[in-house]
Amino acid sequence: MANIAFVGLGNMGGPMAANLVKAGHVVRGFDLSEHSRKAAGEAGVQAVSSLADACEGATVIITMLPKGEHVLSVWSELKPSLASGTLLIDCSTIDVDSARKAHQLSAEANCHSLDAPVSGGISGAAQATLTFMAGGTQAAFDAARPILEAMGKRIVHCGGGGAGQAAKICNNMLLGISMIGACEAFALGEKLGLTHQALFDVVSTSSGQCWSVNTYCPVPGPVPTSPANRDYQPGFAAALMLKDLLLSQDAANSSGANTPLGAAAAALYREFEASGHGGTDFSGIIEMLRTK
Ligand code: NAD
Predict the structure, then answer these.
(1) What is the percentage of the chain residues whose pLDDT exceeds 70?
(2) Catalytic residue among 22, 67, 168, 243
(3) Ligand 1: centre distance to CA 278 (Å)
(4) Which of 22, 93, 114, 187 has the fewest CB atoms within 10 Å distance of its CB?
């Protein structure tokens, strides 16, 4: 069992750290927020009040932070005191350029590193059913796999440093686009007099089928577990979808990829957030699309 430091004990990191404890690892956790430290402490994590205390003696350091700037600041602060051979795993969703810079910091300290963003949301974090998309060397991936298995059920090695973040933003760009497409189809069906159930029964078994319809249907009724049945409480908040779409557009600009539908999806989610719906589930954008 490993001696693990976990930095960033928020909505995702808190339950992920708790699952490492359940798997028998020794986990010391740090978060700037006292509230998050307290909650993690109640779940069995040894919550400490400084980054240095969390990381002293750790052979594995995991970060789960909001953005690239936070990850780079924490990894830079740690760098002078890292023991050679430490495994650094960043599970945050961040831009590909920052992920590559983080790998560089780790290499300069003779450490192993993996970018390993997740999908599966807060319920996946709590139930240890996350999917990890990993980027880094084969050696780093092999070392990280048994640790990640305590927090998720599917772990995919996508390639070298930054490849996990690249896969994550491509997936979420497609998700944002497909959700808007699903919403437009149901809004058009309403105007044409179709019931939600009739359109669902056709689309979910025909060529329009996709996760946004079959699993996360944006209208109430056909899929009882979808947020549409609870007034669009998240789920996956629109603000987080906007964050991922903007990351995809930054990556498209810096790599020269052409993503006009990704750009349109980002503009629509920006408008939805600006109208006060950042905390609404991302499928709630159907309400804005109906009135546009
Ligand atoms: P969160 O805001 O709940 O948690 C982030 C935590 O990081 C906070 O508790 C904050 O206090 C802490 N923090 C910030 N800077 C810090 C620092 N320098 N040192 C220590 N702690 C620091 O966010 P979250 O929902 O847990 O998301 C974390 C990451 O996971 C994000 O990158 C997000 O995009 C990604 N993600 C979230 C979801 C989701 O459904 N919430 C799903 C997949 C991926």
Answers:
(1) 100
(2) 168
(3) 16
(4) 22
Task: Reply yes or no on whether the pLDDT at 121 is more than 90.
Answer: no
Fold classification of 166-289 is N-(1-d-carboxylethyl)-l-norvaline Dehydrogenase; domain 2 (1.10.1040)
Q: Is the CB of 240 under 6 A from ligand 1?
A: yes
* pLDDT for the residue 86: 98
Q: How far is the CA of 215 from the centre of ligand 1 (A)?
A: 25
In degrees and rounded to multiples of 5, residue 259 shows phi and psi of: -130, 65
Residue nearest to atom 30 of ligand 1 (CA): 92
In this prediction, residue 122 carries a pLDDT of 87
pLDDT band, very low/low/confident/very high, at 292 (cuts 50, 70, 90)? confident
In CATH, the number for domain 3-161 is 3.40.50.720
Test site for ligand 1: of 7, 16, 65, 71, most ligand atoms within 8 A of the Cβ: 65
> Of the candidates 188, 208, 186, 179, which has an alpha carbon nearest to the alpha carbon of residue 268?
179
Active site residue 168: yes
Predicted local confidence at residue 18, as pLDDT:
98
